[in-house]
Amino acid sequence: MLTGKMVRVRFARDHIVPQYLDARDPQWLDVAEQLLAIFRSSNGVARGQLEAEIDELFGALPQPLIHNGLAKLLEDRCDFDVQASLAPDEVRAAVFLAAAKKRQQALEEIGQSFARDEIIQAVANDLKAEPHQVETSLFADLKSEQRLTQFKDTTAERLLERYNVALAQAILLRATGIEVALRGETPARFRQLFRQIKFHRLICNIELLPSPHRGRGAGGEGDANTYRLHLDGPLSLFSATQKYGLQLALFLPTLLLCKHFELKAKLRWGPERKEKQFHLSHEDGLVSHQTETGAYVPPEASMFVELFRKKIDDWEISEETEIIPLGNNVWIPDYRLVQRKSGNVVLLDILGFWRRSSAERHLAMLKEHAGAPFIVAISDQLNVEEAELADLPDNVVRFRNMPLPDEVAKRAAALVQG
Fold it and tell me: CB of 367 within 8 A of CB of 357?
């Protein structure tokens, strides 16, 4: 992910226009290859040394924003680790204490000397270690001293393509609201996209619109409908801004896999938070680096399903993939609960980031249009407005880290019995 200082844009009145790179430009391909060569040959090198080598190569340029951005994306593909034979915090404590005592002696006794090597040797003797072990362990846990242990290689062209996506992601971190129009995808592709929205916990209202584009889309039977997504931007939230913004940025590569989309974002830009707009569509040619076709599932959701299957005998749980119309909106529940004896069905929805007003609106639509009993699980941690949670309906299950299978099963049984 690019940092704020690495974002390169120009302004066209109230529009933000990213300065994308041409992924086939020989000049930038050469720069990308030079950076890749550094990372490929730096296994075991300290992070600080790696950064110094990059700075030596490109630091003299008048505006090395692109180079720094490309290097940052490659650094994100690295695993760094603390490599020390002794615990760094314990070594530091021992060295600083020994140095303080030795300095005090030097002040009190004439002729006493203060030599670094003597301190290192003394600490090594106390720890039953070699002096070089003390030296290498002393600051090994500092970020600059962490060692590169693995680099996930890529190609120069894919690095430039990734840069363009990262630039768009960084811009969306300033969004207050986002609207996306989608059309021409297969029903399966729409379902996958909507589940990605859910499991990235985005606050989203999905509107179903009649579409003039009917018939077959490119590559197969297309959905005749047009969907309009209304997503909250990170800067529209009262809290959890950084965490939500990251989830929104992680969702963008999934959207880029769509054949026909148009994104419009309202932004707050710069120190003065001026209102700006950002447009992105399939015509911009951004290439998603995401190859995974399955939906992202948060670890706590996977754990909930696993525990539910282990602990609950009366109910069977499975993923729900049907798109259920809710008037002019649509809904894809997360899970379908089926009572083994009766075959009764209860739909389970787990809300991500939410406001009380949006949760109440969602519940009202479900009551009117769902057509089946349902349970909505909401996290106390992801309530972005810190609103009071009292007086919520009986089919709402509150949780902190993960819904409790016993509580969900109890509520489901009460719904089908009532």
Answer: no
CB 144 within 8 A of CB 82: no
Q: Are 382 and 393 in contact (CB under 8 A)?
A: no
The helix/strand/coil state of 38 is helix
pLDDT tens-digit map of 347-392: 998 887 777 777 778 888 888 888 889 998 888 877 766 555 556 6
Alpha-carbon distances of 124 from 77, 100, 136, rounded to whole Å? 36, 16, 12
Alpha helices in 256-335 (DSSP H): 299-311
Element (H, E) at 204: strand 204-209
d(CA 88, CA 82): 9
**Cβ atoms of residues 69 and 182 within 8 Å:** no
- Contact (CB, 8 A) for 180 and 251: no
Report the distance separating Cα 275 and Cα 266, nearest Å. Answer: 7
- Cα 277 versus chain centre, distance: 23
Distance CA 58, CA 47 (A): 17
Radius of gyration (C-alpha) of the chain in whole angstroms: 28
CA angle 403, 407, 410 (to 5 degrees): 140
Question: Rounded to the nearest 5°, which phi and psi values hold at 65?
Answer: -60, -45
β-pair type (261-269, 175-183): antiparallel
Predicted TM-score of the model (pTM): 0.77
**Alpha carbon of residue 415 to chain centroid:** 35
Q: Residue 407: exposed, middle, or buried by beta-carbon count in 10 A (0-12, 13-18, 19+)?
A: middle
Single-letter amino acid, residue 305:
V
Distance CA 171, CA 249 (A): 9
> pLDDT tens, 58-113?
877 877 889 999 999 999 999 999 999 899 999 999 999 988 888 887 776 665 66
Cα dihedral 265, 268, 274, 280 sign: negative
Instruction: For residue 268, give every residue at least 6 positions away whose Cβ sits within 8 Å of its Cβ, in sequence order, or none.
Output: 174, 176, 235, 274, 275, 276
Which pair of structure tokens corresponds to residue 412? Answer: 């489901």
Element (H, E) at 139: none
Dihedral pair phi/psi, residue 83, rounded to 5°: -115, 105
β-pairing, 274-281 vs 374-379, is unpaired
Burial of 375 (0-12, 13-18, 19+ CB in 10 A): buried
